[in-house]
Structure to design on (349 residues):
């Protein structure tokens, strides 16, 4: 039996790079030689404390760039052996009424590579038929580094969120949370034509690291002047769009308080299960005519747009991918990511 190296998670906070069998090529699917695989916030949560949809031992990784090496029986995809692909994790249910109505991201059953199927932190990955037929698989543009073609997924969710919020010309956008997702929001707001983009966080180090994304200003949320600074910087009215890109109920409360009348508040970051009912002043939402926009995951078109924006440099993932490691150094890379010392860690198996 042929074997490969894979980063196998045995239980929370326990993993090793092991020799495991190369997966069989799925019927209707394909086998990829993984060239790059990013580690994302949800992977970090799973590494730390497991995941209700995952039974260990498990191979994580859902931000994938790989080359097609074998096609399964009955394969009906568009890609041939040798093609380099950018692979996002979601596989939508083609028969769900929401999918049929054009909103596949709202289907009851959206499955994910790295959850329903083993992920890309390995030398090879089996891509299931479901992902080939209705998932997020696109040819990686010629000349785009595999590490950049791998990290399309987080940008796809951001593209989706800003489409929902109709961010555009003239908008003053405040992004709360200066992690990788907040940085992507800054870049996408610019690409969509926002006039001003401000970035706020409670952590000065994170804010400093995010400066490379060139927000018009960075703001310390805990500063006593925060609210007055935001109002002044946004011409006295407050931001027209506030994006919460942090798992923080306090950020959501502040977002509602600080948005201008008629503004949009994008709830991008999910909250911990035990604190998901923040004390939001709903009268403020009512009297100020605010739009509260909940958003998660994305549709295939957002993935394609995100890849285009990455390929032409409008989403500067070069600034996002701060650390790269061979898969053999998974432990080092994972710990740097878990300690919050990286914006984005990518492994090159
Ligand atoms: Zn991800």
């Amino acid at each position: 039996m042929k074997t490969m190296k894979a980063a196998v998670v045995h239980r929370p906070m326990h993993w090793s790079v092991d020799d495991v069998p190369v997966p069989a090529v799925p019927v209707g699917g394909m086998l990829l030689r993984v060239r790059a695989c990013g580690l994302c916030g949800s992977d970090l949560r799973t590494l730390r404390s497991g995941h209700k949809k995952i039974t260990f031992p498990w191979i994580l990784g859902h931000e994938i760039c790989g080359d097609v090496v074998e096609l399964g029986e009955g394969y009906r995809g568009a890609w041939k052996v040798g093609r380099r692909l950018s692979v996002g994790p979601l596989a939508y249910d083609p028969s769900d009424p929401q999918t049929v109505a054009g909103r596949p991201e709202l289907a009851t059953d959206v499955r994910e590579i790295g959850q329903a199927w083993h992920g890309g932190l390995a030398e090879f990955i089996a891509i299931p038929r479901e992902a080939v037929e209705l998932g997020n698989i696109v040819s990686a543009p010629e000349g785009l580094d595999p590490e950049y073609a791998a990290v399309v997924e987080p940008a796809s969710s951001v593209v989706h969120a800003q489409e929902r919020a109709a961010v555009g010309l003239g908008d003053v956008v405040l992004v709360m949370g200066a992690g990788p997702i907040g940085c992507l929001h800054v870049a996408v707001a610019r690409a969509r034509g926002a006039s001003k983009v401000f970035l706020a966080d409670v952590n000065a180090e994170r804010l400093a690291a995010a400066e490379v994304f060139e927000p018009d200003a960075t703001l310390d949320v805990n500063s006593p002047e925060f609210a007055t600074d935001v109002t002044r910087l946004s011409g006295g009215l407050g931001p027209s769009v506030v994006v919460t890109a942090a798992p923080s109920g306090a950020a959501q409360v502040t977002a509602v308080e600080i948005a201008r009348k008629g503004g949009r508040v994008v709830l991008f970051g999910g909250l911990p299960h035990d604190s998901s009912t923040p004390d939001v002043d709903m009268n403020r939402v009512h009297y100020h005519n605010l739009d509260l926009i909940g958003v998660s995951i994305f549709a295939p078109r957002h993935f394609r747009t995100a890849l285009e924006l990455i390929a032409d440099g409008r989403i500067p993932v070069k600034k996002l991918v701060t650390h790269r490691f061979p898969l053999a150094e998974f432990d080092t890379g994972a710990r740097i990511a878990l300690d919050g010392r990286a914006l984005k860690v990518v492994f090159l198996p």
Remarks:
- The mean pLDDT is 97.
